[in-house]
Amino acid sequence: MRNLIAFFRRFRVFLVFVVLQIFALSTYFSFLQFPRAQYLTTASSINGSILEMRNDVTKHFNLSKNNDALQRENILLRGRLPQSFHRLQYGLVKIDDTLYRQQYEYIPATVINSTVTKRNNYFTLNIGSKQGIKRNMGVFSEKGIVGIIHNTSENYSVVKSVLTEDINLDVMIEPIGMVGLLKWDGRDPRIGSITGISNDLKIKLWSKVVTRGGSGYFPRGLTVGYVRKLNPVEGKPLWDVAIRYSEDFRTIQRVYVIKNLMQEEQHALEALIPADKEDE
Amino acid sequence: MNEVIKHSIRFVLLVILQSLILNQLEIGWGIQLMVYPLLIILLPFELGTIYLLAIAFVMGMAIDSISNTYGLHASSLLLVAYLRPQIFKMFAPRDGYDNLKEGNIYEMGTRWFIYVFGTLLFIHHFWFFVLEMFRLNDILLILQKTFVSLPLSFLICLLLQALLVSKPQER
User: Fold this and answer.
1) How many angstroms separate the CA of residue B35 from the nearest CA in chain A?
2) Do B70 and A42 make contact, defined as CB atoms within 8 angstroms?
3) Is the confidence at residue B169, as pLDDT, over 80?
């Protein structure tokens, strides 16, 4: 027993170092996969309010650019209003039909913290579970998709952006409709890559990449980016498709969070698929 | 000025500078400016390693929680705090350290500061980028990031000392 105490006393500096280091590393590696506690992230209320104060100052730097973007979007939407169409037929009565039902709702939000230089980049939004934000909701901006909600608190939420290693969104390349997984190699915040595209397909440069809407986080057809380069993968009949994101994440300010009203139905249906057997 | 208050003010200023300003900058070529190890080297010479580790851990976690890195800064700063006594011993002046002095460039000299702080900052940057990438394939990118970030971080630390450290009076 005395030897044990002497041992601890002799190596106490090293032991304290190891314990603290293990704590830091375990939070680092586990947070990348599973969000657990909020108090260590920007979703906590103290950090959220600090970042909001900072954003109150920095949001004015991009004000004119954001106004231009919002105006462009307004023009687009205004063009779809009934007032801007010349009526060709009269005497018809409009009936609320049952052919369409709303599937997606959008919640506006502001990015109050973002990084683009890290290996895994997370953005913080100024809305949280009080506004109905839940985990795994999709986030997009006026130009393209941004990421999915990773963690929420009452008033703030953290987005796992497409600038993370294992974002793995299913996207497709128009017009051929080839489906692949979106990844990011951690080098350039403007460039992403798609894996799983077979190299017998002819893909034109600058063809559009859109979401597939498979997992129910995003509606089908939201812009992700444009094909920029095709890199052959060594030893496999695959392309590694480099794409240029249509959103510039370095200046991102206004985003929308997607609420899928039919997500539970889709997940309940997909849960009925039998799992693959490992021994086959 | 009371020592505790002085170091607390430095702590807060460096955390704010690092997490709200420097971590948001995107300069390109993989440059990432990290200046917070400056606090660890400016702490008093006679402070025990356990206190150093505790301060480093709290500071790292504070920066991590604001910039969504979940323990990356804490781990690198802990390593700096743990290695500080060894590095100090390696570059000790001939008659040991004077407890009244502080490890800044004005009191210990340019040569000492470049050797000691350069070594600690290199260890910090290398460990940080290795953990961030965590893949052997990216070793060239890790080295590139380390060697382009290191001189710039060092330069900013030199400039910061003009703000944070009071120069000794001419006698």
Assistant:
1) 16
2) no
3) no
From chain B, the residues in CB contact with A189 under 8 A are 26
Is B158 exposed, middle or buried, given 0-12, 13-18 or 19+ CB atoms closer than 10 A? Answer: middle
Residues in chain B whose Cβ is within 8 Å of chain A = 20, 23-26, 30, 32, 49-50, 53-54, 57, 60-61, 64-72, 74-75, 78-79, 82, 131-134, 138, 141
Residues 6+ apart with CB under 8 A from A211: A145, A169, A170, A171, A172, A218, A219, A220, A221, A222, A224
Query: Are the beta carbons of A138 and A150 closer than 8 angstroms?
Result: no
Q: Tell me the pLDDT tens digit for each residue of A72-131.
A: 888 888 777 776 666 665 555 555 666 777 788 888 888 888 888 888 888 989 888 888
Q: Whole-angstrom Cα distance, residue A140 to residue A267?
A: 22
Which alpha helices (H) appear in chain B, and where do they start and end? 3-16, 37-42, 49-67, 72-90, 105-108, 110-133, 139-164
pLDDT of B86-101, one tens digit each?
A: 888 888 888 778 877 7
Residue of B nearest to A39 (CA): B65
Contact A13 B133 (CB under 8 A): no
Check: CB of residue B148 under 8 Å from CB of residue B29.
yes
What single letter denotes the amino acid at residue B166?
Answer: S
Distances (CA, A) of A25 to A49, A209, B40, B77, B157: 27, 36, 20, 12, 26
Q: Which residues of A touch B132 (CB under 8 A)?
A: 118-119
pLDDT digit string, tens, across residues A198-235: 888 888 888 899 988 877 888 888 889 999 988 888 88
In this complex, do B66 and A21 lie within 8 Å of one another by their Cβ atoms?
A: no
Element (H, E) at A254: strand A254-260
Identify which of A26, A114, A118 has the shortest CB distance to residue B69.
A118
ipTM exceeds 0.90, yes or no: no
B71/A28 Cβ within 8 A:
yes
